[in-house]
Amino acid sequence: MDMTETSHTAQLPQVSEPRNPGMALDLDWVRAAQANRSAIERRAATLPGRRSVKKDYQAAWLLKAISCIDLTTLSGDDTAARVRRLCAKARQPVRPDLLQALGIEGLRVGAVCVYHDMIAPAVAALEGSGIPVAAVSTGFPAGLSPFPLRVAEIGESVKAGAGEIDIVISRRHVLEGNWQALYDEMRSFRAACGTTHIKAILATGELGTLRNVARASLVCMMGGADFIKTSTGKEAVNATLPVSLVMIRAIRDYHERSGYRIGYKPAGGISKAKDALTYLALIKEELGDRWLQPDLFRFGASSLLGDIERQLEHHVTGAYSVAYRHAIG
Ligand SMILES: O=C[C@H](O)COP(=O)(O)O
């Protein structure tokens, strides 16, 4: 895998992508989707070993990774002050002296991701930055509150200024093979979002099989998802490479059949720069460069940025600093 092709330009000009309108539920297609676990795991296992990006190229890829982070805080003890600190980091994700040494200007993260009650302070703190606020919704993380309330929550978050809505699906619809119910749910959530972009969180760690992950991915895209996202970060197992392979192949299939590009967001447990590079390599190999832009790829992560900044500091100065110097929130 050649990752020596990127320039130092972390943020390429945005290409505008037509929005996926969804399509009728195609049960034949859904039921035909399979996932060969051992082949997928074998393929996933080859990725970290083959990824070897050095020096300048590594710095460029790490800057690219930063531009794709949904910088996240989703804790019961979140406060407006913590969210404001996170937003300051979102605006200026890397120390100015390091960026200057790297010859980079205008680097920012993909979005800031928070619970509903933290939308207002986040919107205020990000004003003028162009960084959207993503709100988790629909009874995140379990998604088991009354359906009308889950739909209403989306409307409230859009009203409060969220530019992106991360919904959670009902895992039971997948576990019971009730694809019609999952599709109808996705349609309702999408309708409640209006023109606001919607990411569908599958909570893959709770879906039982990779085949279920493949099928749920397709149904959510048919239902109008703009992005599919692995996890809430609260499941026992969150983003993994095998699950990512299944989901991005579903994205590729959907693009081949419909012409629409759906975004991908691995989330939960991605905290190391080297893991971020592996994910970027996977996307490049399976989907191609077009998907390596923030409008089609995000990392959902609370602490990844700190490790990337540490690696960039090492690249510039030749020395590692202690991790606490790169606190996020
Ligand atoms: O969507 C984002 C996740 O909740 C963040 O998970 P993390 O804290 O493991 O990075």
UniProtKB/TrEMBL annotation:
Catalyzed reaction equations: 2-deoxy-D-ribose 5-phosphate = D-glyceraldehyde 3-phosphate + acetaldehyde
Protein EC: 4.1.2.4
EC supergroup of this enzyme: lyase
MF term (GO), any: deoxyribose-phosphate aldolase activity
Domain of life: Bacteria
Pathway: Carbohydrate degradation; 2-deoxy-D-ribose 1-phosphate degradation; D-glyceraldehyde 3-phosphate and acetaldehyde from 2-deoxy-alpha-D-ribose 1-phosphate: step 2/2
Keyword field: Lyase, Schiff base
Record-linked Pfam families: DeoC (PF01791)
Transmembrane parts of this sequence: none
GO BP of this protein: carbohydrate catabolic process; deoxyribonucleotide catabolic process
InterPro entries cross-referenced by the UniProt entry: Aldolase_TIM, DeoC, DeoC/FbaB/LacD_aldolase
Record's GO cellular component terms: cytoplasm
Comp. bias (Polar residues): 1-14
Stretches the record annotates as Disordered: 1-20
Family in the record: Belongs to the DeoC/FbaB aldolase family. DeoC type 2 subfamily.
Protein name: Deoxyribose-phosphate aldolase
